[in-house]
Amino acid sequence: xxxxxxxxxxxxxxxxxxxxxxxxxxxxxxxxxxxxxxxxxxxxxxxxxxxxxxxxxxxxxxxxxxxxxxxxxxxxxxxxxxxxxxxxxxxxxxxxxxxxxxxxxxxxxxxxxxxxxxxxxxxxxxxxxxxxxxxxxxxxxxxxxxxxxxxxxxxxxxxxxxxxxxxxxxxxxxxxxxxxxxxxxxxxxxxxxxxxxxxxxxxxxxxxxxxxxxxxxxxxxxxxxxxxxxxxxxxxxxxxxxxxxxxxxxxxxxxxxxxxxxxxxxxxxxxxxxxxxxxxxxxxxxxxxxxxxxxxxxxxxxxxxx
Length: 306
Ligand SMILES: Nc1ncnc2c1ncn2[C@@H]1O[C@H](COP(=O)(O)OP(=O)(O)OP(=O)(O)O)[C@@H](O)[C@H]1O
Ligand SMILES: [Mg+2]
Prior knowledge:
alpha/beta; Rossmann fold; Alpha-Beta Plaits; 2 domains; seven-stranded mixed β-sheet; four-stranded antiparallel β-sheet; 10 helices; 32% helix; binds adenosine-5'-triphosphate; binds magnesium ion
């Protein structure tokens, strides 16, 4: 068994003069949950369509489960559970009929498995698809992706339209697939839903990789934002240059700064004065993620891209 589920090498896709994906290289390990994040138009769906050979690259290569999607698309599709970002199913069919039909196309899926998934996701299999709400239609898409227990799940915005309760059920399903040794590649706009289940996260923007790291390491990069108020004005010089302290501003008796690592030196320096107020905010992953979304000048940061 290969230890790399997905391998992209210098993958590039241009749509005419428009850039879809630019020179993207990354690897997804077998058995990991990999979150693929980026703003609208970043290239997430483009990447996913390339993995499934729904579109062809301008240059570069993709390997999925050790195979070339361009040569082995049919063989590959049996081993993959795919949920398209714009999943559409036939409107006149009942949800259950549609799912058994898709199951048969994949060589047969036991009916009890479809029923069990539908029950978990609270999907009515007797409802006609055209009568289903957006979120309930998305559930049909989820069931068809999971029902044959594929070794690789490729999910494009799987939680789109799901209510918070069902989102949690979905995250449980992802965690269970991982526990089975299966690999999950999922795209999202929202860090918080990915950080709960993902081992690693890649962030792309404008077709380029801007970050790739474990969720734990991304979290370690977050920092404290501190605001201290004193009984009397203090001097900035007393605090500037303390280890880990940056973005320092002192306005009379109010100090604000950012602290990376231990806040101890700053707290000890502050304790020389009478402190009347203290406020500490942790930058969470969502905010860190926003800085990646918006900053144009960032160098690509790659923790362990291999
Ligand atoms: N068929 C197409 N023809 C022309 N341009 C396209 C096509 N598909 C995608 N693009 C362009 O490629 C870029 C990446 O699009 P893509 O759909 O991969 O983004 P995405 O990250 O999935 O965005 P979203 O979060 O909105 O789903 C965008 O600039 C988009 O306009
Ligand atoms: Mg998309």
